[in-house]
Here is the input.
Amino acid sequence: MRNLSPRELAAVGAVDRDRIAADLAALVQIPSLTGDEDAVQTELGLRMGAAGLAVERIDHPAADLAADPDFPGIEVARRTLPVVAGSLSGDGPGRRVLISGHVDVVPAGDELQWSVPPFSAEVRDGRMYGRGSCDMKAGVVAGLAALRAIAETGGLDRPDGWLGLVAVPSEEDGGAGTLAAIRSGLVGDACVITEPTELRVVTAQAGAITFRLTITGRSAHAAFRREGVSAIELLWPVMEELRADEHARNEAEPVRALRDLGLPYPTVIGRVSAGEWSSSVPDRLVAEGRYGVAVGQTTGEAETELRAAIERACERDPWLAEHPPEVEITGGRFASAALAQGHPLPWSVGTAARDVLGRLPEFTAVPYGADMRLFISQGATPTVLFGPGNPRLAHAPDEHVELEQVAQCARTLAVWALRELDADRR
Here is the structure.
């Protein structure tokens, strides 16, 4: 470690890996599937209080948020969106610094593909296993450990400013939890979302919309196949055009960090249902998929591009020209986001990581949606992603996280937060 003040060194030294493991185990053992985050938020609030933080819980009515013009959509019905914030603050106005993360997780899937029970929080070789361990309860716990370390070593050590850990629900199905936090005033001058990035600093994120295509053909007995029009075969020209559209959109990407990903805006058909009888030509097909939202593009503009690609496919097929597919946009709408070039926030996180870990982290982009786009666009809060864990383990069997990386993240966040709170003095 280098370039650390005595105050920063004390906070780094106060990060306790054993307490990190205990906090993370307690959260992972609560199966907080999207739409069922109440219990984990209660547990997290108790742990925030035990860490010396002022705790605020806001149960935002879901119906109220659904009327918001910036509502990102949801896929799971719910009555409330429970948001929990733990904070340290001075007596007067000053900089507001946030660390944020979501507590909802996706289902465990086929438990036979796991080597441990998915909500056991078992530790092997310094890794904690369990659904949500990586995505992203480890990041939430890293934020908690950072604020605890600061609280135990002198608090904010200044008469003003606010430092908060904001835990939100409903990220996995669109981000409504973060919009609820924003509408409740939980915004600031700088924010780190501790999504799993393997301690890389992410300055840009792609977005995505999900869609449903309903293709209509004409049924016939299988023995007279030519008298029918297979809805399954009609999907082929649509997929060919979507693939060509995907290639053109990705080749046109001007942001190098995104272009370096190879395929920042993938288009995928993830689910197909067709036919009712094996000896009949299928007359109806329903396909569901995902379409990337480019940086600088709204979800509405992405929808327009998707519909245009499907229209091009219809123009080249006589049947589709007369019987165009029905296109519906479904589920959450994940807009894209990028921090303005030259903004100081990525460098402040990067130098804190360098001074704590001994190396400057990579600055990169990611091809998936995250809540940073809501903080940037709706909350006017400069935001980056920086957290423990490999994102490729998210949503997968045997999801896990390195406990030492969680501690490294917490130490870095503690130094970063102290410096950010003092930014207006420099």
